Amino acid sequence: MSIPFLDFTPMHRAIQTEMQKAFQEVYDSNWFIQGGKLEEFESQYARFNQTKYCVGTSNGLDALHLALKALNIGKGDEVLVPSNTYIATVLAVSYVGATPVFIEPDLNTYNINPSAIEAAISSRTRAIIPVHLYGQACEMTKINELAQKHELFIVEDNAQAQGASYNNRLTGSWGQVNGTSFYPGKNLGALGDAGAITTNDSDIARSVRILGNYGSSKKYHNEVQGFNKRLDEIQAAFLSVKLRHLPTWIEQRQQIARWYLEALNGVGDLILPFTAQGSTHTFHLFVIRSRHRNELQEHLSKHQIGTLIHYPIPPHLQKAYVELGHSKGDFTIAEELAETSLSLPIWPGLTRDCVAIISDTISDFFSKKL
Ligand SMILES: *Cc1c(COP(=O)(O)O)cnc(C)c1O
Predict the structure, then answer these.
(1) H helices within 265-351, ranges in order?
(2) Do strands 125-128 and 78-82 pair parallel, antiparallel, or not at all (unpaired)?
(3) Which of 62, 64, 83, 86 to probe ligand 1 with, by most ligand atoms within 8 A of CB?
(4) d(Cα 205, Cα 54) in Å, to the nearest integer?
(5) Which residues of the chain have pLDDT under 70?
(6) Minimal CA–CA distance to 187: which of 223, 158, 209?
């Protein structure tokens, strides 16, 4: 039996009728950009995220880009980003012409380490982008205090953690403006590219909407040089359907995580996900660590179990960022994570039997090895 890293089938089969109805409604309406489906989804997602406003965008990277742009961050500014994140977080900073400054993660949570932030703040620092990595909320209270003390904006990257919270406040509701992604594989995924910003600030919401719509709020009147970074009606309609199921899907992910945690406890040299005090974890990814990661991944692959590495090369060592002048050894925690992390299958519909097979295959690997 083969177990893929990600399989949409169980999730999509369960909502097929609803999704087809959503498609039919958009198809019959003959209205495909900036209409009622988008408005409906934006208000539903704002309510879900407990923010006043949500503005749909073309994808998560564009959401972060427009968020930074709306805050007037640009050339000469520095933005703090975690050294262990998906490259999109960093690209958004580059898009506005600002300089990304990396902060090491905490080795237990893999999220940005609040104690490492202050040392990286300079007179040019304007904002910090906490990334709620793998689905776990960052320690937002401490980050918020530091941001206030140094008058920095917070722009959360909530691409992986819709529905997570820190001290009972949802991720995506802490920053002045926050970006999220509805890339198909995210916890809330469209059937194509999609994203959104969330904010409580009406001016920022308006700015993002105008910037993403050619700089225009009135057709053919352009206030600023904008972009085309809108969310389509069809994706908005699909997202409204899926949003209704998101809380159940998150619970399923958390259940799968509990099965793994139980079965893999004490196996080999594995380091299992750790959820920090005050944080909730929505388990977008279930990331384990081992010094034998490459061999383990090969062993699982031989047994037809799909895994991925999030992420094999940290941004500071990417060719795209040689301009920053970093080299190996500059961010050793991010580098350590890149060498030891392995993401196991976790998706709504993954059965307890599958989790047992995966866990047994991992135990097998270590019993032969040690
Ligand atoms: C997916 C992701 C993004 C980018 O989202 P897209 O919709 O793919 O552009 C940004 N940041 C993080 C942490 C992500 O996981």
Answers:
(1) 293-302, 332-340
(2) parallel
(3) 86
(4) 7
(5) 370
(6) 158
- Distance (Å) of CA 345 to CA 19, 241, 281: 25, 24, 16
Residue-wise pLDDT for 287-332, tens only, equals: 999 999 999 999 999 999 999 999 999 999 999 999 999 999 999 9
| Nearest Cα residue to atom 7 of ligand 1 | 60
> How high is the pLDDT of residue 369?
78
Compute CA distances 326 → 89, 284, 331, whole Å: 17, 29, 9
First to last CA, the chain: 26
CA of 134 to the centre of ligand 1 (A): 11
Q: How far is CA 57 from the centre of its chain?
A: 15
Q: With beta carbons less than 8 A apart as the criterion, state whether 281 and 136 touch.
A: yes
- Report the alpha-carbon distance of residue 170 to residue 187 in Å, rounded: 15
**3-state SS assignment for residue 47:** helix
Residue entry with tokens 């980003």: 81
Distance (Å, whole) CA 114 – CA 152: 14
Nearest CA to ligand 1 atom 6: 60
What the block records as the tokens of 160 is: 């992986």
Residues with CB under 6 A from ligand 1: 59-61, 85-86, 88-89, 131, 157, 159-160, 181, 183, 193, 195
